Amino acid sequence: MSDTPTAAARTSAGPTDWVSGERVFAPPAGTLDPDWLVPAVLEAVPEATPGQAQAAVVAAWQATRTTEPVPGGTPLERAAAGAVAEAVRTFGA
Prior knowledge:
Largest sheet: none
Number of helices: 4
Strand content: under 5%
Radius of gyration: 15 Å
């Protein structure tokens, strides 16, 4: 058996291809690991840093859990808000 990965094993759908990473399972309902959504935000806004993406996800999550409006004035804020909204819809976060 060869140690060389096949072409299919070398390709990935990108940073949100979570099946290929260690975070295959969603967090328990009602919780959110902001780091889990950072790749999706960075895919949408590649010029952002991981720290900026994480801060935007945290802000979007906090607003989602309260009555505050979710930040959405910048591309980074919109990407984070979209990632959080999708996580809530998909996983019941």
